[in-house]
Design brief:
One of its GO terms (molecular function) is NAD binding. The chain is about 55% helix and about 15% strand. The chain is of the alpha/beta class. The protein has two domains: about 160 residues, NAD(P)-binding Rossmann-like Domain (Rossmann fold, 3-Layer(aba) Sandwich); about 120 residues, N-(1-d-carboxylethyl)-l-norvaline Dehydrogenase, domain 2 (Orthogonal Bundle). A six-stranded parallel β-sheet has the order 3-2-1-4-5-6, with helices on both faces. Helix 10 runs antiparallel to helix 11. The longest helix has 30 residues. The radius of gyration is 20 Å and the shape is globular. The relative contact order is 0.10.
């Protein structure tokens, strides 16, 4: 008998993740602050809970995928939160990106109630969430990781147990440092290519398979040259993650030269009202500095 899964948070990532859990045959209950986002899942066979507490009462494993550390705390421990419907022996898996310290604190609070906890943030964008090909980095005790593995396998292809509570979040921050640094390099490279007059699509084809190739280049480079700013991950959410990176790096004394530069470039785009666009719109900050626009707008 499959464990009953409860999924909280049906945003840009959560919708695809929950759909893949349902597709894998798990009994699924969902809750979202805006209930309308659950309509497609309910039509496909999911149950809709009235609150996180109601969802917990119907579930063996509860997964949260929300925006930030305070949001996780609210759905777990706030009024009508998971803790009110939970019972000993349950497992809570937080797949949001939050502070490592927050993950450790939530694990300790749940442990006091006999409830297991894993921090298991993800990478792979909305595409990976929809296709079930996410990279999942997991922090927590090995027996709980083993218990959660079937549901992780419904959502992701690369599942790595990276350490104890909080380690999953730390590795996710490593991921975000690499993502934004790569996107800054892509932005500079494409502005240079545009200024130099070479064919952008042929340029991407030439460099993507070599030493400069990356997921960001292959997935976001083509979007940039089409000027398609639909988000796999928004600037606003990326900035939230970079705040977590900069705070965590400050705590351990690690210099963040490129990451802090990207943070401030994104801030200029937020001030221009572009926070809802995909994180690859970072190139707009470099374009404005250069007075050069990459690609052609589609008619």
């Amino acid at each position: 008998m499959s464990e009953r899964i409860g999924f909280i948070g049906l945003g840009i990532m959560g919708r695809g993740m929950a759909a893949n859990i349902l597709r894998a045959g798990f009994p699924l209950t969902v809750w979202n602050r805006t209930p309308g986002r659950a309509d497609e899942l309910v039509a496909a066979g999911a149950q809709l809970a009235t609150s996180p507490a109601d969802l917990a009462a119907r579930s063996d494993i509860v997964i949260s995928c929300v925006s930030d550390t305070p949001d996780v705390e609210a759905v777990l421990f706030g009024p009508q939160g998971v803790i009110e419907g939970a019972r000993a022996g349950m497992l809570v898996i937080d797949m949001s990106t939050i502070s490592p310290q927050g993950a450790q604190q939530f694990a300790a609070r749940l442990h006091d109630h006999g409830i297991g906890f894993l921090d298991a943030p993800v990478s792979g964008g909305s595409e990976g969430a929809a296709r079930g090909t996410l990279s999942i980095m997991v922090g927590g005790p090995a027996p709980l990781v083993e218990r959660a593995m079937p549901v992780f396998q419904a959502m992701g292809k690369t599942i790595t147990h990276v350490g104890d509570h909080g380690a999953g979040q730390t590795v996710k921050l490593v991921n975000q440092i690499l993502v934004v640094g790569t996107m800054l390099a892509i932005s500079e490279a494409l502005v240079f290519a545009q200024a130099s007059g070479v064919d952008l699509e042929k340029t991407l084809a030439a460099v993507s398979g070599g030493a400069a190739g990356s997921w960001m280049l292959s997935n976001r480079g083509p979007q940039v040259i089409r000027r398609d700013w639909r988000p796999g991950f928004t600037i606003d959410l990326q900035q939230k993650d970079l705040r977590l990176v900069l705070a965590a790096a400050d705590a351990v004394g690690a210099p963040m030269l490129t990451t802090s530069t990207v943070f401030h470039l994104y801030r200029t785009l937020q001030q221009a009202g572009l926070g809802h666009e995909g994180n690859h719109a970072l190139i707009k900050a470099i374009e404005r500095l250069a007075g050069i626009e990459v690609g052609q707008r589609s008619e």
